[in-house]
Amino acid sequence: MTRAVSVAITGIGLVTPAGVGTKASWRRLLSASPTAGKDPRLAGLSIDISCRVHDFDTAADIAPALTRRLDLSAQYALVAAQEAVRDAGHDCSVWDAGRVGVVLGSAAGGVQAYEHETERYLDRGQAAVTATFLPRYLPNMAVGHVAQILNAQGPSLHTSTACASGTTAIGLGVSLLRSGACDIVVAGGTEAFTTPVITSAFARMRALSKRVDDPSAASRPFDVDRDGFVMSEGAGVLVLERADQARRRGTPGYAHIVGYGASSDAHHPVAPHPEGRGVRAAILAALDDARARPREVDHVNAHGTSTPANDAVEGAVLAELFPHHPAVTAPKGVVGHMIGAAGAVEAAFTALSLAHGVIPPCANLDTPDPSLRVDTVRGSARHGDIGLALSNSFGFGGHNAVLAMRPAV
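The chain above was modelled as a monomer; its predicted structure follows.
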């Protein structure tokens, strides 16, 4: 059987609560220092904590006039995308624009713009709704603005598979490169979902941690005392190229994406299948695409939301498929749950683990759940060569997406 075309990750751009920029985000992740805290935007709610992006400044990347016309989710995407392109060593003023695609995921798009305009309408009527509302709200507009500012004239697409959106976008980007439709794809996810209405909805679903008096300890994937996730926001964007093309221009990249798998639980609107049917299928599909066996997996960057059900299902599937116990980490203990951006940010972290030979520890993993037979990295980062890594993402609606990566060579 012919091996599928490998895709190199040649550039990374991150805007996360752990830091604006890839270096800052990676450094804090390695320290396992949680970012959750009280959020003034959520004051008065029963759950008033989140992981916020601090010190976010658009001045270097977005003209002030454009910034005012963008929802925060699009601002995050633009800053991350431009960092990724610079990191990859591309000059978008001279590249073959028709061969460059953009694929970004989010769960809902410009939610902050929607809530703001709804308040204006309810308070003051139709005349108060601004003419720029729809371009700020529509989910595809972050993609459109990134394509415009990068002069990317190939396919521009938006994916929405809830918490798997960013991973789905990267998987679609891989497909565009393998098919020959593009030579370069800028792919990832963005989200600015931490609003009073959305947070209230998640709280009503009992999905959020109730540790409002100790925010830094609230997000604790795979811990026996986990009680829910912490809302977060940000963006992760990768520059993808066929590995042979990247080598020709002297840029092997951080890692190579060698497999992608997706599935649907077809079970419940929000709960995972109790036996992990879809999770297992997506992992096996990614390994099959990579022409790899389960025993080759050295590292899993888990979806690890810190909810009782999700971690239990994911942990059980990992224990079943990988009895050799690869090293497992879960970034949400540090950065919280970035919803549609989570998968892209975690794919970037997986690529950095492969590039540097280091796996970040899980934050707040004080007492690993004894029922979950997985080798979670805790205490300090674990160093060593990683031959094959997986990055898992699972979303409401039963969406599952998994990336398989190998070191860049």
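The chain has a mean pLDDT of 96.
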